[in-house]
Amino acid sequence: HRAQLEQVANLLRAKPGDPMLTKLHSDLAKVVNLTEDLMKAQEEKRAREIQIGGRCEAVWSGDGKWYTARIDAVNKETNTYSVTFLVYGNTGEVQGENVRPYKHAKKSQVRVGAEVRAFWEADGLFYPATVETITSGGLYRVNFKGYKYKAELQLSDLLPIKQENDDALPEKAVIPEHLKIKPTDNAKQKELKRKKIKAIKSKFRKRKSEVETEKKKNSWQTFLSGGKKKLKALKKQKKSIFASPDSVDGRVGVVGSGKSMTNFVDRKRHTFGSGGEPQVTLPGLNDEE
Questions:
Q1: Least buried of 19, 33, 119, 209, by fewest C-beta within 10 Å?
Q2: What is the mean pLDDT of residues 89-102?
Q3: How many other β-carbons are positioned within 10 Å of the β-carbon of residue 21?
């Protein structure tokens, strides 16, 4: 908008007093001022939300995805942030545009019995836990998996069990543009970039291994859960009336009815009279004749 405003201003200098250009210049000036005020307000809000020691979301250089993190330091000259990723514990340095406000779990994601990642005050990281109850005061009582430890936490101290990008890892590590080696780099710059690229690739391999291990674990748990359900269903299943008997004297038939098996009369031959017509005896009719 500012470039357009400058163009209109040049036209207005060539045609001073032109009503159409004057109005267009006035409207564009208002748009530019409103846009700058909005950007300034957003920057101030971001500065309040993203402070040293506070939580945020940051892009991990290993895969270019967003993860929950804590800001440890800020370098205003280079506009970079030193962060600790709160789910996996690794650290990194990210550019200002790769940092955004923190987002905790939604209420719909933390019902009783739900699996979450909960804040552990001892080291400030998040660990898998199960929501046991919700107190009258609105706190969430969680039980940390694998530890004999429970805590009552606020909603802001809970994350969904799966990070937004847990299943979205790329095939290989993503190298940021500012770390890519250029022909104009000197030997020292190239060596420094190589070391940082090597560290990124190493972190990516570790992260990918963790994700694959978690997937296998979840797959195995799902398999076990499904097996238990099938076994339970089999135990409840009623015995079929056509099942083979347990003894040589047993018979296949209706079970549990309390009635004996149906008896069928042996079928006899028809006898034919002199006319070749079959003589059929019907119960009850011959008695009346």
A1: 19
A2: 88
A3: 18
Please give the mean pLDDT across all residues of the chain. 77
The CB density around residue 86, as the number of other CB atoms within 10 Å, is: 23
Taken in order 49, 128, 204, 124, the sign of the CA dihedral is positive
**8 Å CB contact between 166 and 217:** no
pLDDT digit string, tens, across residues 126-144 = 999 999 999 999 999 999 9
Name the token pair of 195.
């070391």
The C-alpha torsion from 121 through 125 and 128 to 133, rounded to 10°, is 30
Residue 253, SS3? coil
Q: Which residue has the tokens 């804040």?
A: 119
One-letter amino acid at 43 equals: E
Write out pLDDT tens, residues 185-217.
898 888 888 888 888 788 778 777 777 777 777
The torsion angle over the Cα atoms of residues 69, 74, 78 and 81, rounded to 10 degrees, is -10
Using alpha carbons, list the distances in angstroms from residue 184 to 91, 131, 180. Answer: 29, 55, 11
DSSP 145: T
